[in-house]
Amino acid sequence: MPVCGSDGVTYENECELRVRSCKTQTPITVVARHSCGKCFLRSLVFD
To answer: Which stretches does DSSP call E strand in 1-47?
Structure first.
């Protein structure tokens, strides 16, 4: 199941998100249990 990360990237699953977070040593959290879309990216800019 795809997840949307706090970095605005869609990951295939939460495991891939966690691996990316670990490899980059950057905190990335799941913000939605679906793909990131334009609405999500706009909220990052305006919120």
So the answer is: 3-5, 10-11, 30-32
Residue 25 belongs to some domain of the structure: yes
Measured distance CA(32)–CA(7) in Å, rounded: 12
Domain of 18?
3-32
Residues with Cβ within 8 Å of 15's Cβ and at least 6 positions away in sequence, in order, are: none
Domain count for the chain: 1
pTM above 0.85, yes or no: no
Question: For 6-41, how does the pLDDT look when each residue is reduced to its tens digit (9 = 90+)?
Answer: 999 999 999 999 999 999 999 999 999 999 986 655
